[in-house]
Predict the structure.
Amino acid sequence: MSDTPVLSVRDLRIGYDGKTVLEKIDFDVARGEVFVILGGSGCGKSTLLRTMIGLIKPLAGSVKVDGEEFLGVGGAARVAMLRKFGVLYQSSALFSSMTLVENVSLPLEEFTELPKDAIEIIAKTKLRLVGLEGFEGHLPSEISGGMKKRAGVARALSLDPRILFLDEPSAGLDPITSAELDRLILDIRDALGTTMVLVTHELPSIYAVADRCIVLEKARHTIVARGRPADLRDTSDDPYVRAFFRRTTLTEA
Amino acid sequence: MEATRTAPARIDIESQGGRTVFRVSGRLDVESTPALWEQARRLAKSGTRPEEIDASAVESCDSAGASWLVWLGAPVSGANPQVAALLDLVRPERKLTRRSVDDAPDVNRGLVLGLGHVAHEWVSAVRSTIVYAGTLVEGLVAAIRHPGSLRGKDLLLYMARTGSEALPIVALITFLVGVIIAFQASVQLRQFGADLYVADAVALSMVMELGPLMTAIIMAGRSGSAFAAEIGTMKVNEEVDALDTMGLDSTRFLVMPKFIALLLTMPLLVTFASFCGIGGGLLIGVTSLDLPVNVYLNETVQRLTMWHAAQGYIKGECYAVVIAAVGCRRGLQTKTGAQGVGLSATSAVVSGIFLIIVVDAVLTVLFHYV
């Protein structure tokens, strides 16, 4: 059973108002893999991610986590499956009225029977893991954008999820902070064995972290390439994929 | 700067082998083009349209000039490299993004399809409202059965926000309403020598009707909008999504503390409002009608019954349900962006006040027959 994919997406079709945004989306993500969903702005990357974590209802298809169907599951079973997920949102989505340590503690308080002091220790450890030691009592509004992302990762990790979903983690970050976040993603994967699913279009990040990727294109509404980023850059004969990886216009590609 | 204006833009119309050619010369920029648009429009009205544009005498061109050249709608010849490059950038066939046919907005739906769409939206709105009401009842029952499940800190915070912090404005407004009722009533009642009944008019209207109503309208403006804006901002910042993907119930987390806080503070505010209103009436009674304080208060106490007070409290609690439920729901329905938050806050106040008046009308008639 060890080779059952952690995440398995089959024939997913997403759309609204009778329009299809994405269709024929198939892929598997293996345990401990850093899997990247690529594509230009507006191609539906974030929509796909939000569908996988249950925020958007797809028109058809299936999303399996550890071999169990996730879509359409309700009640306690859904909550149990959601505990396998950690999500870092594009805007970090930290609760603005809570300090960093309270943000990280919240899932622990709600889903575990741990005593208060233990929860605080765990939360502080998670914050140390992401390099935010000393900022535990700060409110999200008092820290920088890069630190918010780190705090978001710490909160997403609070229940030690099986899969960490990251929605454009390096959006709005300077190259150094962005590289530090990439390092953090790999460190966490190596240390905790967490499977990572990233949505991004930042080429340096993609080359730095991705084991495998899929490329989505808006015009074709589906996956247009899959594989290792470096291979796609060097060998793909699809003009869109070539343009994407070589950072050129479609005409030049 | 004057040197740059040595070659003003102009159009010379020539006919070459039966073809109308516009010979454009000078600097085509944002300052010179308005006159050219005007001239070209006039020419078009009189039937003169270019079949070719000779731009060989155009010295330079900015985007306004290039837009004008493109608008003329004829092939441009002889442009210098700067002008040609700019024209290349602004020509209409150039598209930065490749839009597929599916992306085009579906404008013409047709009447039947449009009606069906509206009906479908109505049905889903009604269904989701019923689900929301059910969730609120469920949350309230859960909070009563397990008070520990409520976040105490949040509850106290919202009780302070909706209760003690609202006291000054509630006091001021209801006191003035008391003054107004007493004043208006005294003008009428004095004609019949029934000055003392001003106390009755003020007491009954404040306790049964205006105390709860004015408080509710203030709370809809103060707290209903605040609830909508707060939850709306959380929605826009993906905080509500974050709760959802953590498997936490956003109703229990975000709505219940506000809902219960308002249910708890409303009776206190209504009591306070009634006292302030009666105080306003007393001021007019004493100063304008020369009634002794004890006589006015005695008349007030004798006129009021427990049932009058109960009516005020029942109305107050119903208004509290409406304000909190509508405010939080509008917050949860927030679409995207700062504008979405603004719309939610506005909608929370408008629909809140509307529903308060509807509930008031229903309860007033109901109490009359009880």
Chain B has twelve helices and four strands. Chain B has a mean pLDDT of 88. The two ends of chain B are 86 Å apart (CA to CA). The interface with chain A takes residues 98, 100, 102, 106, 233-234, 237-239, 241-242, 244-248 of chain B (CB under 8 Å).
